[in-house]
Design goal:
Number of domains of chain A: 1
CATH class of chain A: Alpha Beta
Oligomer: homodimer
Order of helices and strands of chain A: HEEEHEEEHHEEEHHHHEH
CATH architecture of chain A: 3-Layer(aba) Sandwich
Helix content of chain A: 25-40%
Strand order of the largest sheet of chain A: 1-2-3-4-5-6-9
Radius of gyration of chain A: 19 Å
Number of strands of chain A: 10
Number of helices of chain A: 9
CATH topology of chain A: oxygen-dependent coproporphyrinogen oxidase
Shape of chain A: globular
Distance between the termini of chain A: 50 Å
């Protein structure tokens, strides 16, 4: 019996989870991941891994899931393809370091199948509390190099898609310094009503499912080299109560994005997903201060300016 | 020139804001409210008052607004009546005490006008971190007595409406011990597509706009006597780090409700409302711990049980 693309994708996501959690445990040095294996009443299940109150990470979640069954009407209306039968498998991670000098990061790779149609999606984005241009440049350059191995059109397209997706309209503010975001790769899927459209037409290569699986594996493998060097540069830096407070206010924005706009979160909660696995993305602690605004000329104000700039970080001089 | 019902309602809401903020400042004893008067580009404006880091209140917001103009398509589809011209005036408050022994509380009274149609809405609900049955009973009895001066059907109907509204479906959990919630009073309004329906048919008295203005004034006036005696009973009680932590986790649920489900918040953010005034409802600090569950038999577990009970608090033996 030959393994299907979904089977092979699921196997890759599981193996990637093992590799990433092992590396993050080594980086943390104090705490281990706790694993909760769960099954979904409608079919399938997952492994949620959370590391809490570590030396480096205040809260880190790295989840895989592989679920299947019948789409509810809400999901059916929002996804390409026909019929109710679906299978969705993927890895999703959000890391909240304790130090405000170390950026929060999110990454996700997934494979969705509906009826005869299937596609890959995912991305990764960096949310620093203090933007260090060289760090943002390292993150973006790693992703750009990864993308360019597959299609020269990918990086600029997926960076713009990321900038458009990880954005808080009510604040007029991006979530962080971005990264890449992509969806419907390998499907030849038309854009679906109710979904944010990709910012420009896709390239022909995107309809090749095997090529897109190779691309998604490459993105998954790029996560650790994109993020860990930034951690190693910043983790030793001292930080103050004032910087911690700024971090907590910025984490409040992260909560706003995830609960109001993030498709995975909103759909998950509205379609009886496993609440604790979905909300592992929320920070361990966050603050909301009325009309909070950084002092003009402060490092906090500089960070907001850098975040709002939508800069071409990958082209920054090293 | 005779004042319209909307004018008279706005004048009452302004006067109520003065009375409530004066009483809360006296209760706090350490901090005063800061006022931001703002104007809305499309028409009207408001006065946002926030007290932060007080002796009693970690964050307290008491806002009035009186806005008018043209409804956007999203709001037009969600409200009864015809045409685009609207005026909305109201008072909204959320108080987050520092002590986990003192409940968080929300209250809102409002008047909406669309074309020839207008109606009142509002309510108040209590969110204790540790449920003290006598306190929940006091809150509900005050509201029940207030309601019964106007219509014997109001309290049971509006309590059930509150229980249905302040509920987190993804947690299967009410926000707190409830209170009252009502809408479309004085409009003779049919229930609108996309809106949560009232739990049972309305009483004939509800189409009398003047009578409903009198009711809403009575609800507004009942807020301080419903809430402040609970504060006075609980503010002197000692609390521990463990209780503070539980409060922060429960406040995370408050954030989830407001950002995912609260109609005022979601509509406000999607229709270019004043962000800082809308989000003053969010707690100053909140926590999300993975798979947090209170120890069986603990006071925290007892509170969850009490919150989930949807009890008839007003009928509790004193």
């Amino acid at each position: 019996m030959t393994a299907t693309l979904a089977d092979r994708a699921a196997a890759y996501f599981n193996e990637l989870q093992d590799r990433i959690t092992a590396a993050l445990e080594r980086a943390d040095g104090a705490q281990r991941f706790r694993e909760d294996a769960w099954t979904r009443p409608g079919g399938g299940g997952g492994r949620t891994r959370v590391l809490a109150e570590g030396a480096l990470f205040e809260k880190a979640g790295v989840n895989v899931s592989d679920v299947h069954g019948e789409l509810g009407p809400e999901m059916a209306a929002a996804l390409p393809g026909d019929g109710r039968a679906f299978r969705a498998t993927g890895l999703s991670l959000v890391l909240h370091p304790r130090s405000p000098r170390v950026p929060t990061v999110h990454a996700n790779v997934r494979h969705i199948q509906r009826g005869a149609r299937s596609w890959f999606g995912g991305g990764t984005d960096l949310t620093p509390y203090y933007v260090v241009p060289a760090d943002a440049a390292h993150f973006h350059r790693t992703l750009k190099t990864t993308c360019e191995r597959h299609d020269p059109a990918f990086y600029p397209r997926f960076k713009r898609w990321c900038d458009a997706y990880f954005f808080l309209p009510h604040r007029g503010e991006p979530r962080g310094v971005g990264g890449i975001f992509f969806d419907y790769l390998g499907a030849g899927a038309e854009v679906v009503a109710g979904q944010p459209p990709p910012p420009e037409p896709s390239s022909p290569r995107e309809s090749d499912a095997e090529a897109m699986f190779a691309f998604v594996r490459d993105v998954g493998d790029a996560f650790l080299p994109a993020y860990l060097p930034i951690v190693e540069r910043r983790r030793g830096e001292a930080w103050s109560h004032r910087q911690r407070r700024w971090q907590l206010v910025r984490r409040g924005r992260y909560v706003e994005f995830n609960l109001i706009y993030d498709r995975g979160t909103v759909f998950g909660l509205r379609t009886d997903g496993r609440v604790e696995s979905i909300l592992m993305s929320l920070p361990p602690e966050a603050r909301w201060e009325y009309a909070h605004a950084p002092e003009p000329g402060s490092p906090e104000a500089a960070t907001l300016d850098a975040i709002r700039s939508h800069r071409d970080w990958a082209s920054l001089e090293a």
